[in-house]
Specification:
Elements lengths: L1 H22 L2 E7 L4 E8 L4 E6 L5 E7 L2 E8 L6 E8 L3 E10 L2 E11 L2 E4 L3 E7 L6 E6 L5 E7 L4 E7 L6 E8 L4 E8 L1
Antiparallel strand pairs: 1-2, 2-5, 3-4, 3-6, 6-7, 7-8, 9-10, 10-13, 11-12, 11-14, 14-15
């Protein structure tokens, strides 16, 4: 019986991943060196895609949330000081990050990074976490209460698909924070227990 439940969960997660990949935004960032600008082309085929441009101190310079549809934006960086900036787009399943360097009149796209996000499913008393751990790195799962006290911790090693269910049936009322992190990223989800 346990094997059937586990198999069903893996199949459901794989279906959610495939469905998510079908809806992930298509992103293209082009540096216009002469204009000191960056062109962002985005096909937001999923709901709630966010765009953020941050400076070296991680202060947000530009922010926008999108719904479905195509999006073309020229980000004029002529008023920005020389330095390193971070452009990111994020949807329900993935985060795309671009490191942009401005030196004089030259705008260079220095690095690009793509990260899969865990899938959180909530019911009235439980939080289910599924995370596709492509590099089999150690994955840390932590739960904090609303006073940021650690109430649960676990490290999962060498696992391709990380699955965990958190049962809040007997938990004290309040807001809990579920944190999933690996070597490269940290993801946070809040859950309210009434």
């Amino acid at each position: 019986m346990k094997n059937i439940v586990k198999f069903t969960t893996v199949v459901a997660f794989m279906f959610a991943t495939v469905a998510g990949m079908a809806n992930e935004p298509k992103v293209s960032v082009i540096s216009l060196r002469k204009d000191r600008s960056v062109v962002l082309k985005l096909d937001a085929s999923s709901e709630n895609v966010s765009i953020r441009l941050k400076d070296e101190q991680l202060n947000t310079i530009y922010s926008e949330n999108l719904s479905k549809g195509s999006y073309n934006k020229k980000l004029n960086m002529s008023d920005l000081e020389d330095g390193v900036y971070f452009l990111s787009t994020e949807d329900k399943f993935k985060t795309y990050s671009y490191t942009i360097e401005i030196t004089g009149e030259v705008v260079k796209l220095v690095a690009t990074k793509e990260a899969d996000k865990p899938y959180f499913r909530k019911t009235s008393e439980k939080v289910f976490v599924n995370f596709l751990n492509l590099d089999n790195s150690n994955v840390s799962l932590k739960v904090y209460d609303e006073e940021y006290r650690l109430v649960y911790t676990e490290t999962i090693k060498d696992t391709f698909v990380v699955e965990k269910a958190f049962n809040f049936e007997d938990a004290v009322s309040g807001t809990y924070t579920v944190v999933v992190s690996n070597d490269a990223n940290t993801f946070v989800e809040e859950f309210v227990v009434n």
